[in-house]
Structures are given as structure tokens and as C-alpha cells.
Write a structure and sequence with these properties.
With 326 residues, the chain is mostly beta strands. It contains 7 helices and 21 strands. It starts with 9 loop residues before the first strand and ends with a strand. The strands form 5 sheets. Strands 14, 15, 16, 17, 18, 19, 20 and 21 form an 8-stranded antiparallel beta sheet that branches. A 6-stranded antiparallel beta sheet has the order 1-2-5-12-7-10, with no helix packed on it. Strands 9-8-11 form a 3-stranded antiparallel beta sheet, with no helix packed on it. The protein has 2 domains: 213 residues, Jelly Rolls (Sandwich); 89 residues, Jelly Rolls, CATH 2.60.120.10. The longest helix is centred in the middle third of the chain and has 10 residues. 43% of the residues are buried.
Length: 326
Amino acid sequence: MLYPLRFEPIYFEKVWGDRRLETIMHRRLPPEIAIGESWEVSDHPHGRSVIANGPARGTTLHALISQQPNEILGTRVCGRFDTVFPLLVKYIDAGEELSVQVHPSDEYAAEHAGEMGKTEMWYVLHADPGACLIAGLREGVTREAFQQALIDGDPAALLHRMPVRTGDSIFIPSGRIHAIMPGLVILEIQQSSDTTYRLYDWGRMGLDGKPRELHVEQALAVSDWSDYEPQPGVVSVETEGDNRKTVLATCPYFTVEKYDLRGERTFATDGGSFHILNCVAGNGTLSWEGGTDTITVGDSILVPAGLRHFTLCPHSDASILVSYVP
């Protein structure tokens, strides 16, 4: 029997983490540690999601895909990725700045890390006043200038900072130098990869009291040195009666659409891809042939590809991100 799947969150302590998932999403976190990441939907070997609802409760997503690949992933996804779940959805809670880092392309990652590359997008679920992100380089910065700044121990002035507010989104392709700064809770939708190359870590110590590893040679090799001053933005906006559809990001790996709902919205799929739902404001009801469920802020729900129709109905207003493989 197919039905929308919920998962047990997988929490990761990080030296830069915080505990705002307790207040923003009313999560019960492991006590007395700073949680930097919550992996919501994942079949990556570093954290495999366990189903939290329905008849498959207690089963891993990995096992369910092995049993029903086309029904869970979709025919298009299986054609491209076989039985590999190609996306990873996580929340990031930045109490301090993350390292200045960059992710590799598919080709580089396959050769040097044995996995996918890492293209991702960020949706700002919460931003403190004055919060900002680092993405790309300031206009005119060269690789040589950046390398010298690393040697001098302070490359921050060469990085492009952008102020952000709750509800902003930005696309982070592989090769884009970036860092999430303090005061932000980010919903990240990415390729299923855990390969990160750190360029600079602000002189801080890790959880073990030692400097965290840097990967300067690899990072310099994969960085895009023509990536100047990108901005938050969206692909398109479309009004659908009382509702609004905003395409936040689209690339070969994923499409992410935001639906600001004031009325019911039914989704008819072609069976080619699963859909991931992330509620970012308000709440509502998710219904499908055979059942209903509630969806509220912080929920991450996987709709299997074999469910050809599902409906979202807000309780007053709701904003829900819908992600799939195009």
C-alpha cells in the first residue's frame, strides 16, 4: 500500500549549531548539545531515514526503495539513478557562521569522492534581523588574489555577502563558494552527497578542541572563479486563482516550487518522480486516495511516485515547498 511517508529526523551536533528547531518547529532535540543539521529525507550512507508512520513504520527508506523502486522513486528517477535516492533534504540551524566552503561537480566527486556532486538550494525559514549569507566572490576577485588572502589568513573581504530575510531563496550550484552566517535557519534541498571542501573556518576549533580539517587544494580546484555577486531570486511566479506558485529553483537534479495556498490545490503527477513536501508557513491537510494527514511548519513528507494524485488544503493560509526530479 502506497501512502505519504514521514521520517524520524536525524540530528547532527555541530560546533556552529544552535537549538532553534525546538522553538521554530517544536522539536524535541537531544539534550544539551548544539544541533547544526536535521536530515529530514535521506538515503545517504551517512544518514538513512527511517519511516515514522503507517504500515512501513520502522523500515528504512533504503529498504522500501529496494522493494518497490518504481513505485517510490518513479520511472524517470529509476531510469536515471537506478535505485539510488538522488536528493537529500535537511534543516540547518546556524548559531555561528559555517565554514567558507565549496562543493564539487558530479565529475570531480565521482573521481575523488566516489559519490554525486553537490548542487543545492536554500530557503530561508528564519532570519534574525541583519542576517546575511556568503555566496560567490566580490566583483573582480581572482583565484590568485583569493589564494594570497588565504595565505594571509583573512579571505572574508573578498567574499560576496548578501542580506537575507525570511522567505528568501538562493540557488547554490557546485563550484559556488559559500557560507551560511549566524542567525539563520535554512531548509536545504540538495543532491544526495556529503562532500564538502572547506577553504576557511574563521580560526575556530572543532568539537574536539582541535582545528577542523581544511581542503584547500580540492576547493581551489572545483571553485568557479567567475562567480561574481549572485543574488537571491526566483525563476517564475504564477497566480492560480487564490493560490500562487513560485518556482524557486530548477536544474537537472531538482525543481523546487513554492505554493502559497489560500485554497485547495490538487497535484496530478506522471509517475516519473516522487515529490517531497516541506511546510514553511501555516498548516493544512494533505489528502490522497485512501487517506488524509495534517502538514505543519517543519514537516517533511515524501509522496511516492506511485500516488498519482494528492491534494493540499490550507487551514486559512499555508506555504508549502514541493520538490521533485524534473
